[in-house]
Amino acid sequence: NAPDHIKAISPYQPGKPIGELAREMGLSERDIVKLASNENPLGMSVRARDAALAALADIERYPDGNGFELKAQLCNRFGIRPEQIVLGNGSNDVLELAARAFLGAGRSAVFSEFAFAVYPLATIGVGSRCIQVPAKDFGHDLDAMAAAVEKDTRVMFIANPNNPTGTFMRGERIKGLLERVPGDVLVVLDEAYTEYLSLDQRYDSLAWLDQHPNLLVSRTFSKAYGLAGLRVGYGVGNPAVIDLMNRVRQPFNVSSVALAAAAAALQDEEFLARSAEINRRGMSQITEALAQLGLQWIPSAGNFVTFKVGDGAAVNAALLRRGVIVRPIAGYGMPEWLRVSIGLPEENARFISALREALGQS
Ligand code: PMP
């Protein structure tokens, strides 16, 4: 008999797996285009693949529970120290570790309407209260979020860019928020899509850590690095924050294969640049088509875009019948919208023609 707060949780709804649709439709998996989970259409860096395969040779051994080598690479790349890093089984794990270490009964977390679904899950899961702040133009209303902090608030989740809306805030605005939030509120800045930001959008949140020990920056290898299936992410924060998160972490939460692949992926900057470039072009391809179809979309800084179709469930069903998987976001309170991940040019073209047919515009 689970406690009421657990029974009240609505489960996370992932994108439909390719195999499931293939079985339902009697199609070959190769005929299906999945643009539903913001994955990297290029796959992963060859260096990461080689490192993952090499790590299989020692699979009978437990992984390095402290992730020495991956942390060393992260330190090298970002000019940080190992004691500032917590590794996670995907960045979802990092978000949950923050909730486990800093929330609990009698505490609350602040986050925005239309923000990433794991924030309420992580908050409710540890028996804390959610303070959901209405969005502004589908993005975070940072003034309202600062004002929403209550006496018992100990965590604030911010996604930049946000999923599923793709909305982006300039670095100065987040820095400004940090100056206003009480020091006993951990600000979890979720930068899952940060590698997709254009040069003029980029900002260095890690440089704020000295001044703001209540900041935790969360990042992932699932998106631009193309390692979603391996599950590896990291949090960077003040050593005291990281120490507490490490206490509630599973001792071997990141697999040896994931550790090795992530360390190698960090060294392949060329792959990262190529991923961002293909995303930039695919974003233009898709948004130009949305404009031609007369559809509204939310300008996105991520590797996906959310667009308005009216009846999201019906259009989603019509796309599925055409072998195209996108993401309905009714669970986010946006039943009239669908989210599509940016794919390879030919995948984007399949999506566009299926959408045209689904809307009866072919
Ligand atoms: N944060 C955001 C904003 C996301 O969109 C996602 C992936 N959907 C995650 C975190 C978690 O991704 P992962 O656990 O694969 O790192």
Automatic annotation (TrEMBL):
Question: Which CDD domains does the UniProt record give?
Answer: AAT_like (cd00609)
Main enzyme class: transferase
Q: Name one GO molecular function term.
A: histidinol-phosphate transaminase activity
Indicate the quaternary assembly.
Homodimer.
Q: Which domain of life is it from?
A: Bacteria
Q: Which reaction is recorded as catalysed by this protein?
A: L-histidinol phosphate + 2-oxoglutarate = 3-(imidazol-4-yl)-2-oxopropyl phosphate + L-glutamate
Protein name in UniProt: Histidinol-phosphate aminotransferase
Q: Pathway it acts in?
A: Amino-acid biosynthesis; L-histidine biosynthesis; L-histidine from 5-phospho-alpha-D-ribose 1-diphosphate: step 7/9
Q: Where is the Aminotransferase class I/classII large domain?
A: 31-353
Query: Which gene holds the coding sequence for this protein?
Result: hisC
PANTHER family noted in UniProt: HISTIDINOL-PHOSPHATE AMINOTRANSFERASE (PTHR43643:SF3), HISTIDINOL-PHOSPHATE AMINOTRANSFERASE 2 (PTHR43643)
Upper lineage ranks? Bacteria, Pseudomonadati, Pseudomonadota, Betaproteobacteria, Rhodocyclales
Q: Which InterPro entries match?
A: Aminotrans_II_pyridoxalP_BS, Aminotransferase_I/II_large, HisP_aminotrans, HistidinolP_aminotransfase, PyrdxlP-dep_Trfase, PyrdxlP-dep_Trfase_major, PyrdxlP-dep_Trfase_small
Q: Which organism does this record belong to?
A: Azoarcus taiwanensis
